[in-house]
Design a protein that fits this description.
Elements (H helix, E strand, L loop, with lengths): L1 H13 L7 H14 L3 H18 L5 H23 L7 H16 L11
Helix pairs in contact: 1-2, 1-3, 2-3, 2-4, 3-4, 3-5
């Protein structure tokens, strides 16, 4: 149920339903993602966050949506730091999938995105 609720919030962010509350929605999702102890939910949350990043990288809106992508990248980095200190981690069986998805997300937008860090 939590993954479903997380995905709904992510979906609505990508559909600009909460335009004036996007920062709060991203913060909510990010906090849940960073602190989630269940490895299966972590992967599901990560996939939902990737949908938002796809939304951020749409060519006509990249600069306008860059702050949203920056927020998500900050939460990805926080999760990595927390895991390095013994916090919530993914199981060994899911570790490769998690790292592959996370690496793609942190790599940022396509190479043709304007200069600057995503």
């Amino acid at each position: 149920m939590r993954a479903y609720a997380f995905a709904i919030v992510a979906y609505y962010v990508g559909r600009e339903r909460w335009d004036y509350q996007t920062d709060q929605a991203i913060d909510l999702l990010g906090e849940f993602f960073v602190r989630e102890p269940d490895p299966e939910l972590t992967l599901q949350y990560l996939l939902s966050l990737s949908v938002i990043l796809d939304y951020c990288y749409e060519e006509d809106y990249r600069e306008e949506r860059r702050p949203i992508g920056d927020q998500i990248h900050d939460y990805l980095k926080q999760r990595k730091k927390l895991a390095a200190r013994g916090g919530p981690q993914v199981s060994k069986g899911q570790e490769d999938d998690y790292h592959e998805i996370r690496s793609e997300m942190l790599a940022g937008p396509p190479a043709d995105m304007p200069d600057g860090d995503p």
